[in-house]
């Protein structure tokens, strides 16, 4: 057991000859490899029992032998003696072994603050070259890596979602694929959506430029009328969490009506910003409208059903630029980039920069919850069903719970929320109810429904979020 180690400690499995004990005062053995996300997650999959040995019995350590106190003892020793990456890997593995210990208690008990501030770099230049560059874009703070590995541990597999080709002439088959995707997952990808790769790249670049401005500049455009900047922790999508808020910052851009109240950064600071965002809004709205007509077909309705209903008269169509910081305050229990939530409206079209982090939970009431990764596909947009569509379809189509976990890297994404005209009444569709399956929700005006949802999640003044 760990407290019987008497001067011996476990090291990274790559360096450990089988069944060898390493004296604590030995110099760090780790010559760091180019490490990647895969290596980071490998910390989690390798169990302490594979490479931790007792000097008393020379028997492999059994995970079940570890108590929380024993693990803490070992980690306190390790914090003083190991280099950060080795320490981090043992911390991560030990946490895995101590099933009963809460993750946050490690942070409060261990005095390893300075260590956690160190940046894990590529210490040994022999580990990377031009042809084998480091796979992480920048050095990463070890506490961020740890946060990432905690989240990796919570994840299991990547979700295989259908890819819908919006340019297909076979609209009925496409609608059937969408129906299956909405019943099974509430999520799917779209390709050939009419947004050129160049525009997708540009919108992410311009978004990054905005979020790189000093916070005082960004605050000059603080959210008003549901348009503008929201800072970190200003919103908590899962109000049941004790954390102070979600770590993302964001910027809302609303519909392009004549008297729209959008706020724009100064042309001097960001000359192409407004034109890029306006072009994106126009194109993504057009793609979203195509998806809505396919959804109507998928529900055995006329393609223009939602138009005729008035849902798309003056749709509440908002772009939300999102920036998730690399860092996560590890003293905050359960801080997410975006905590668990479902979207409120009809559908969301999401563009990401390829950095992972988005996860879905298909069975929200099943415990323990299973969270699955939604990988990005270059050039594709991710589409998900929102609560309003779930109400319309009497829960035939799922509005799936999702969240963004820290990825150990900065992440940028652009959500486009396509929600019904504010006066549209959302009421169970006839094709989705019967005597044996009556409507589950009463009819509701679109903006009343949305407003109530914003009221619950905004940590700042709700007036700023009014539509
Ligand atoms: O950034 C993402 O990947 C997801 C964003 C999201 O879930 C939201 O804004 O509702």
Automatic annotation (TrEMBL):
GO terms for molecular function: dioxygenase activity; metal ion binding. Residues 414-447 form the 4Fe-4S ferredoxin-type domain. Pfam families: 2OG-FeII_Oxy, DIOX_N. The keyword Protein biosynthesis does not apply. Keywords: Iron, Metal-binding, Oxidoreductase. Residues 315-420 form the Fe2OG dioxygenase domain. The keyword Thylakoid does not apply. InterPro entries: 4Fe4S_Fe-S-bd, DIOX_N, IPNS-like_FE2OG_OXY, IPNS-like_sf, Oxoglu/Fe-dep_dioxygenase_dom. Belongs to the iron/ascorbate-dependent oxidoreductase family. This is 2-oxoglutarate and Fe(II)-dependent oxygenase superfamily protein.
């Amino acid at each position: 057991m760990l407290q019987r180690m008497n001067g011996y400690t476990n090291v990274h499995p790559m360096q450990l000859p089988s069944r060898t004990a390493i004296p604590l005062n030995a110099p760090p053995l780790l010559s760091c490899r180019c490490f990647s996300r895969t290596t980071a997650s490998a910390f989690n999959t390798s169990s302490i029992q594979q490479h931790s040995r007792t000097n008393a019995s020379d028997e492999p350590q059994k995970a079940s032998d570890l108590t929380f106190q024993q693990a803490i003892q070992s980690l306190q020793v390790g914090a003083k003696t190991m280099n950060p990456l080795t320490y981090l890997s043992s911390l991560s593995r030990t946490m895995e072994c101590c099933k009963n210990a809460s993750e946050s208690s490690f942070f409060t008990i261990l005095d390893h603050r300075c260590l956690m501030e160190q940046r894990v770099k590529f210490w040994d230049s022999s580990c990377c070259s031009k042809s084998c560059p480091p796979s992480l874009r920048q050095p990463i703070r070890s506490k961020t890596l740890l946060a990432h590995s905690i989240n990796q541990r919570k994840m299991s597999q990547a979700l295989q979602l259908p890819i819908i080709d919006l340019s297909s002439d076979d609209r009925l088959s496409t609608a059937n694929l969408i129906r299956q995707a909405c019943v099974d997952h509430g999520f799917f990808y779209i390709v050939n959506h009419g947004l050129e790769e160049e525009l997708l790249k540009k919108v992410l670049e311009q978004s990054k430029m905005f979020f790189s401005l000093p916070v005082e500049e960004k605050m000059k455009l603080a959210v008003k009328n549901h348009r503008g900047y929201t800072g970190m922790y200003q919103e908590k999508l899962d109000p049941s969490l004790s954390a102070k808020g979600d770590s993302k910052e964001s910027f809302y851009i609303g519909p392009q009506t004549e008297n729209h109240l959008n706020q724009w950064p100064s042309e001097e600071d960001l000359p192409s910003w407004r034109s890029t965002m306006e072009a994106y809004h126009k194109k993504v709205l057009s793609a979203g409208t195509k998806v809505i007509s396919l959804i109507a077909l998928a529900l055995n309705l006329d393609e223009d059903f939602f138009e005729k209903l008035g849902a798309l008269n003056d749709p509440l169509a908002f772009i939300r630029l999102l920036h998730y910081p690399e860092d996560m305050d590890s003293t905050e229990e359960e801080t997410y980039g975006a905590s668990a939530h479902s979207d409120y409206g009809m559908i969301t079209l999401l563009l990401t920069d390829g950095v992972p982090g988005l996860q879905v939970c298909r069975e929200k009431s099943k415990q323990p919850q299973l969270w699955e990764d939604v990988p990005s596909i270059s050039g594709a947009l991710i589409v998900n069903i929102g609560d309003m569509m779930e109400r319309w379809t009497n829960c035939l189509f799922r509005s799936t719970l999702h969240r963004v976990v820290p990825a150990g890297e900065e992440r940028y994404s652009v959500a486009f929320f396509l929600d019904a005209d504010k006066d549209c009444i959302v009421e169970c569709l006839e094709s989705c109810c019967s005597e044996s399956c009556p409507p589950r929700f009463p009819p509701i005006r679109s903006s009343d429904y949305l407003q109530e949802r914003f009221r619950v999640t905004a940590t700042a003044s709700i007036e700023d979020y009014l539509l």
